[in-house]
Amino acid sequence: MDLTRREFLGYTVGAMSLMGAPLPQLSPASAAERRLKKWRVFSSNQSVLPESSAGYRAVIPPRRYKFEPWEQPDSMTDCSLVIMSSVCVLPEKLAERLRSCLQRGTTVIVESGAGFASHLEFRKHRRSLREGLGLHVAAPVNLWSPPRATPYVDYTWPTRTRVRDFTRLIPPAEQPGEIIAWADDLPVALRRRVGSGTLIYIGSPLGPALLMGDIEAIRWLYTVAYAA
User: Fold this and answer.
1) Residue 31 within a domain
2) pLDDT for 34-73, tens place per residue?
3) What is the extent of the structural domain holding 119?
4) pLDDT of 24-41, one tens digit each?
5) Would you say residue 13 lies in a domain?
């Protein structure tokens, strides 16, 4: 039976749930979590890659996050970290709020969910990121195409780590900022200062790795949160 990578991920997660397999936890979480400030995780389109938002929900301490509609006026107020998971099209009103967050000093993670989008949806994705946040992205790349082995993403900031890739990659195009992750010679993630804040773009969704309990993915996310 032929399976797509997304179907494989879905079946694997389902099997783990049926078996009651626990997700790994960060061990010295109690003291470390007290240093975390308020997080917010949003998805502009839950139908694009719902397992990604589920991954963040699985690993973020419940008292530190709030999954809620981004349309609520105070949903992003006083956040140290705002995560936009599995973004396909970024609405202009949302982009405006994210720009305000960045000016106030918030760290904003924008995770692309357009790896499986149609050609027309991808064009909308690219335009909305460019017009909304000044982010430029290149065409999708399938890291799972032969003769590649199982692909991994190597992060270089804020800590060096390696995370398994589960989806098609939307690389950042050439633009101001620092490349902070690579898949072989392909750029995967970028960060840059915007106002007093930090904008982080991830072209290979981290949420599915979090959902699978990838310790390196969890460590990377927490390290970013501590720095926010």
Assistant:
1) no
2) 455 677 777 655 567 888 888 988 887 765 555 555 556 5
3) 37-227
4) 444 444 444 545 567 777
5) no
